[in-house]
Amino acid sequence: MSFQAWGQDDAGLMKKGEYLSRLGDCMACHSVSGKPAYSGGLAIKSDLGTIYSTNITPDKIHGIGNYSEQQFADAVRKGILPDGTRLYPAMPYPDYAKMSDEDMRALYTWFMKGVAPSDVQPPETKLSFPFSQRWGMRFWNLVFTSDKPFQPIGGASAQVNRGAYIVEGAGHCGSCHTPRGIGMQEKALDSSDETFLSGGNLNGWEVPSLRGLPRWSEQEIVDYLQTGRNDKAAVGGEMTSVVEHSSSYMSAEDLQAIAAYLKFLGGNPALQRDDEGARQATEAKLAAGRHLSEGERLYIDNCGACHFASGKGAPGIFPQIQGATIVNAQEPGGLIHTILAGAQLPSTAKAPSELAMPGFAKRLSDEEVAQLATFVRQGWGNKAPAVTKEQVAHVRESLETKK
Amino acid sequence: MAQITKKEVDVVVCGLGWAGSLMSIELAMAGLTVRALEKGPDRSYDDFAYPKPADEYAYAVRNKVMTTPAASAVTVRYTMNDTALPTRKWGAFVPGGGVGGSGLHWTGVLIRPTPTDIKLKSYVDEAYRPGILQEDMRVRDFPFSWEEIEPWFDKFERICGQSGKTGNLRGQIQEGGDPFEGPRSNPYPLPPLEDTLNNVMFAEAAKKLGYHPFPNPSAAASRAWTNPYGNQIAPCNYCGYCSKYPCLNYSKASPQTAVMDALKRMDNFSYEVNANVLKVVLHDDKKTAKGVIYIDEQGNECFQPAKIVVLSSFQLYNVHLMLLSGIGKPYDPVTEEGVVGRNYAFLSNGGATLFFKDKHFNPFVAAGPTGQMFNDISPGNFDGPGLGFLGGAKIHSSQATGTPMSAALPKGTPSWGAGWKEGLEEWYGHSMKVSITTTCMSYRDVYLDLDPTYTNEHGQPLLRITFNWKQNELKLQQYLKGIVGNIVQELNPDSASMSFLPMDADFDLTKYVSTHNVGGAIMGDDPKTSALNKYLQCWDVHNVFVPGGNAFPQNFQANPTDTIGAITLMAAQAIKDRYLNNPGPLVQV
C-alpha cells in the first residue's frame, strides 16, 4: 500500500493508532527529551549491558519508513526486523504478540503518517559476547514466546476481557510485574498462570503484585493510572513514566476495564484489617513529641510536614504510610530510593500538579535513613523488617553511579 | 544589542503573578495564543522544596523571593513640594519578583471587601453631612454591583481553596461567620484553619465586648483541595512560613500551586522569564497597541507583537508602564486632569503586643492566615460619620509565624547580642498580638508620576510616589487605639506594648506594613476620572487591559488579593465573551 492510496478513512485509523501507541507506551522508550518524538536513543540498562532504543519514526534511512505493514507487524509482535535481525526482549514483543491484526494496521498507519520523520541516528546497542549474538534470540523466542493471539477469558465479562487484552498485550504490564524466569523471560504471559503479574524486582525496587490489588478500590486503580495518584498512594520509580506517557492518556472505559481485570485476577490473600489501635498509638506518640526514638524524631523533622503524625498524608496529594506497598515491601530498596532521591508526580491531563517529594540524600546519613526507614516500616501498625545502613549505602551508591 | 521581532501572538501578558497567570489560563482556555513575559526569574517547586524556605534570614530579612530595588526601585516623597528619593532597600512594602509575583509570598488572607467597601462614595454621600470629611479626599465607587462581582469572588476562592466560616449565605446570616459579609452564592469551599490559643482568647474577649469575631478567611487550605483547573492544593501543616516565603508544602494558594501546572500543559501558552517589558508600543492613532518592547535575558531588545496586551505586573509597575508608554493622560494634581497616577493609596497597621508569663502560645504552630478577626469597625458598621472620619479596620489576632528573629520581646529587651538571646529564651512563646489592618482613602495630592530626577538602567524615569498620612487616617488610628486598648484590658496580660500612629505621624518607609499598595490606574465609570473601565480595559487604548491592585480607587480594610483575583476573572470573561467578537471599547460613555 502506498502513501497515496491512503484516503479519508485513515483519519479514524490514525487516531486509533495514536491511541494504541499510548496503550503500548512506545513514547517512553523510543524518545529522549530534547530529541524528536520516537527518534530513539534511550539507554536501557540491563544486566547484560546497555540497550539503546531505535528510531521508529517513518524516516526511510534512520527509522522504519521502508517497512511494509507485515514487516512492521513482525517487528512489533515477533521481534524480527525486515533484514532478519532479532530484537532483544527489552522491547516487549512477547506481550505485543497478543495485539490484533486490526490494531497493528492502525498502529502502522499512525507511525507512517502521524509521526514526523526524524533523521536522528541513535547509538548502536553493543552487548558483550555471547549476548551480542542476536541470532541466539531465535532459540529464546522458540522457548519463551508464543505466536498465539490473545485468548479471551471464557466466562468473563466483555469489560474484563477488554482489560485483559490491554494488560496482557499492548499495556505489557507483565514485563515489570511478572517475575522473570531462568532465561530472564516473563514466567507467564497471561492470566492462565498464577505467576502472571504476581510481582517482581526492577532495578532494586520490589515491584508489587497486581493480582487483585486488595487495598485499592477499582476507582482508586483508575485514579492512579489516570493521574499518578489516588487517596492512598502516589506513583514513584519507573511507573512514573508509564503514567506520564501511557496510562494518563487511556480512556476512562479502558482504565475501568483494566481495573476490573486486575480485580478479576484475584490471587492475593485478603488483607488483614489495618491496625487502627497501632496507628493511633504512633500518632499519639509523635504528637506528644516526648521520648522519641531516633527514627521517630527524624520522621517528625523530615516527613511529618506532608505525611503528618497520623501517617495518613492527604487524600490524592501526599501518600498514606500505613499499609503502603512501597513501605511494607520485603525488600526496602524502593523506600530507601524514595527517601534518598525523592519523587515527582507527572503532570497529567486530569491532575496537572507536579507535586514532588524532595530527596533527603544530602540531609541524612545512611544510618539516619536506616533509622527513619525502620521506623516508617514499623510504625502505625506496619510490620516490615528493619533496614540496615548497609542497605542504604548500597542504594546511595547506585544513585551516585546513575549520575 | 540585537533587535529581534517575535512571532505575533493573540495576547501578551506582562507579569506572571496572580493577575497574569489567571488572565493567561482563562484566555488560553478560550483557544488564544498567549505569551507571558516575566521580569524576574522562574520560581518552580524545586526552588522551595522542603525544607529550603524554612530560612528566616534568607526570606524574611534578605527578601529572597522579592524583586530587588536595583531592578524595581521607586522614588518616594511626602508632598508635591519635596524632591523624592529612590528606595535603596525595601521597607514599608516589598513587591515580589519572578513567576508567582507577590502571589507567591503573600500571607494568604483571602477575604472579600464588604458591599459598602465597593460603593464607598455612595455610602459617603448618603451617610456624611457635607463638610465633615477632608476637602481633598477623592474616594470613588467600584464600577460594578455586588451581584455582578460576587460570582468572580466565588470562582477565585474555589481556585484558591478558600478556608473559613460562611457568614452570609444568600442573605442568611450564619452563626460563627462574619455577619457583615456580603451575601455569598456558595459557602466557603473548605472549613476554617484550626485556632491557636491566642485566637481563642482574642475571640472570647471580642465577643464579650460585643463584637462578632470569625476565623480568618484563608488561602492556606485546611484540607486537600482540587481546584477548577485540576490543580491540587495540600492541607496546611501550620509550619508558619507564609508571609515573605513560598509555601514548602503546596498548601498556600499561589500562581504556582493553583494555576501554573495546568497552564504549562497548554500548547498555546508559553512564557519567558527575565524578560523586562519596557514599553507598550501603540499604533499611530494611539487607539490600539501593537505589542510590547522588552529586554530578554541575553540583553536583546525584542518586539513582541500582540493583538491584546495585558499589563499584569505589581500595581506600581503597571502604572509605571502606562506612563512610560503614553497610555492614558498622566494625572495632574493641580488641575486634577488626567487619569494615570491618581488615587494612589497605601494603608497602615498597628496594634498591641501582649505578654503573659504563664501562657504557652506554641508559636511554632502557625499559619499566616490563621487567626480570628472582626469587621465591626469597617465603613457602615459603626458610627464613622459621628466620629468625623471615614474608614475602618479589620481587627484581628493571628498566630502568623513562630520565627525567632521576628519574635516579640518586652520593651527594654536588647535588640541584639546576648541580652537579646536571653530575652528570647525567656519570652519566646509568651506573647500574642492584637492587630489592625486599616482602610486608606485617596486624596487629590496623593498620586504616582514619573520622577524628574532618577532613572533606571535603561534610562527611563523611575516611578514617583507622593504619599503621606492625612488627618482622616490618623484619627482612625487613634480611634482604633481605644478599641484595641479595651480588648487588651479584657485579656489582662502581665504587660503590653501598643503601636499606633500619633496625630503628627509621617509615613515611615523603613518599617514593614504590608504590600497592599493600590490605585494609580483605577477602574471607574467616567473616563475623565478613571483610567480603566469595569473590565480593566484602558479607556483610551482598547486592546490594553490592566488587572491588578492599581484598579482600586482607595484601599479597604480587607486584604486585596481576593478582589484582584475577582476583577481579573471578570475582565477575562468579558474579553472572551465580548471583546474577541467585537474588538473595541467594552463600555460606551
Automatic annotation (TrEMBL), chain B:
<protein>
    <submittedName>
        <fullName>GMC family oxidoreductase</fullName>
    </submittedName>
</protein>
<dbReference type="GO" id="GO:0016614">
    <property type="term" value="F:oxidoreductase activity, acting on CH-OH group of donors"/>
</dbReference>
<dbReference type="Pfam" id="PF05199">
    <property type="entry name" value="GMC_oxred_C"/>
</dbReference>
<keyword id="KW-0285">Flavoprotein</keyword>
<feature type="domain" description="Glucose-methanol-choline oxidoreductase N-terminal">
    <location>
        <begin position="223"/>
        <end position="343"/>
    </location>
</feature>
<dbReference type="GO" id="GO:0050660">
    <property type="term" value="F:flavin adenine dinucleotide binding"/>
</dbReference>
<dbReference type="InterPro" id="IPR036188">
    <property type="entry name" value="FAD/NAD-bd_sf"/>
</dbReference>
<dbReference type="InterPro" id="IPR000172">
    <property type="entry name" value="GMC_OxRdtase_N"/>
</dbReference>
<feature type="domain" description="Glucose-methanol-choline oxidoreductase C-terminal">
    <location>
        <begin position="451"/>
        <end position="567"/>
    </location>
</feature>
<keyword id="KW-0274">FAD</keyword>
<dbReference type="InterPro" id="IPR007867">
    <property type="entry name" value="GMC_OxRtase_C"/>
</dbReference>
<dbReference type="Pfam" id="PF00732">
    <property type="entry name" value="GMC_oxred_N"/>
</dbReference>
<keyword id="KW-0560">Oxidoreductase</keyword>
<comment type="similarity">
    <text>Belongs to the GMC oxidoreductase family.</text>
</comment>
